[in-house]
Amino acid sequence: MKLFGYSMREILLLKLFKLGDFLIFFIFITIIILALNYYFHLPKGDYLEISHGNEIKHYSLFQNKILIFDEIEVEINMGKARIKKSNCANQYCIMQGWISKINHSVVCIPNLFKISIKSKMLSYDSTNY
Amino acid sequence: MLAKRLSKLLFKYFSIFLLLLINSCSNSNFYEHKVLIYGTILEFKFYDTNLDQANQAIDQIVDKLNDLNKKFHPWEKSLISEFNQTHQINNCDQEFIKIIKIAKNYENVTHSQFNPAIGKLIEIWGFHEDIIKGQVPDEEDINKILATQPSLNQLLITDHSISTDNASLKIDLGGMIKGLALDIAKQTYQDMGIKNVLTNFGGNIYAHGKPDKRLWEVAIQNPHNNKLLLAKLKMQPGSAIGTSGDYEKYFIHNHQKYSHLINPKNGQAFSSYSSATVLINPNENDIGIKSDVFSKPLYFSENLVETSKSLQLNHFFTTDHKNQIFISKSFADEIIWLFNEGDFIVEVI
Amino acid sequence: MTAQTINIHQISKFCAIAIILHSAEFFFPTPIFGIKPGIANIIILFTYLKFNFKSAVYVSLIRVFISSLIIGTFITPTFFISLSGAILSLIFLFLCQFLSHKFFSIYTFSMLMGLGHILGQFIIVRMFIIPDDGVFILFPIFILFTFIFSLINAFIVSRLISPSN
Fold first, then answer.
1. Is the pTM of this model over 0.80?
2. Chain C interface residues facing chain A, Cβ-Cβ under 8 Å?
3. CATH class (in words) of the domain with range C3-161
4. What CATH number does the domain located at A47-118 have?
């Protein structure tokens, strides 16, 4: 059995990989596993932050609403949000689809437009009661 | 040789980590301070202000508020409690008269839905005590007081004295004292040239200026659970927010909750709403007092649209006991709700 | 011809290849936005192994500048992202020189260079383009693909250095 032109024996004998490579390899794998674990276990967010040019606006995620900005339409649907329409050339922002977890965001660079999900553990300066 | 290489290597890595750290460290130009004044927390958050200047401003404000307390405390020894006993005082200074006149003005503006002359009603409900035990008074007693139609318009005000013929008239400025404190704070900041500070006096907040590029951000407590937040909003420079609710001072008798807010129209201590919040826009005068006083008419309102129109309020909301929120259109666009899904139903009016 | 001129000729040749690969990569469709195999890195690593670190720096930086002119992204955010990625990648390559060649092969070189590349890009994006911690959400995906592509690149380099029959 051959892999990339090398026999399994050669690979096992460290002809392809040297010892240090395995070290780096496993460090990399660990980082990836930790990062992916973090990525998939993010809690769901509570509200949507939209930054449009220099403006930053906030909307509750728990509603069904379509927000229309100059070039972009954002859809909020009970806990998740997406960019529905955009006039940008590549349409990458639309391809990213729905987002619902904390800190997830969709960016449309040509329009300087960003939507991101934020949590309730937000910062505020004082409490009114 | 190896040690030298290793130390070189570590140094390089360390410099990369430093590069990453520089980016994550942020500034801290804020100075926060809390003071306890007659059982209420007065909270300051200064941005980009000289520390000495900030402390000086705090001292001045605290002095003024203590002075105010000596004059207006409704049941401890003060000028007002003296008046409430004798219905006549002659040793008033100009500031005292000025504040009484402001109170009278706002009583008229709100068509007596905010009434500082019903101190006796508050007293018979048992709220003129440091530790609230509470008692439900007889209907007869309430009606007796209401029959005299207590109002600050019945006061005879001269330059140094106030007096009245109505024996049931007792002045209680508890409904506007927090707002008054905010206005005093505002005046102090303006006099001292302090630009950016957020002042919170017992839940009523006045936003002076703004921190750097963002605005002051304020969270509103959930009226049905003090551990949760209801909403969050950005305060325009110079705006103030105030809430009246049944969750701060209350007692429960026969499963009915009685709050310290007494309806001046019928003398009852409950309302169909559990809280009322108003946001006063910048550039209005008496901004602090308005934020405090105007929430009371809304709290007891039977028709929110009419009440808000008569007070020229654009930004307000009320919550009721059935977890419904009634919010004005322009406020609904600015506020960010933070309650859990299904906890409240929002209705824009 | 002196050794010096041969070196410059070789460097120019490698630069040309790197520019072609870099530019071709730009127009190549990617399934996920922003994820590219970084095939130009093959040439950088190869230059380093064939000549020295200095030549690798030349090839890498010239590649970034010239191909951005060709693609038309010069002095746009894309250019700065790619420049900072290239610089940090070179710093990592420099650090790799201190590693013992007895234990570490080009696979380590390639993986660390790839890591440097995305770190450089993330720093620039976080600091200037999207100043929000939200960008780090993309980090796991990027590091996963960096890992895969850097292994493939290293394999290609290993075949280039000593072609086996």
1. no
2. 33, 77, 99-100, 102-105, 107-108, 111-112, 115, 129-130, 132-137, 139-141, 143-144, 147, 155, 158-159, 164
3. mainly alpha
4. 2.60.320.10
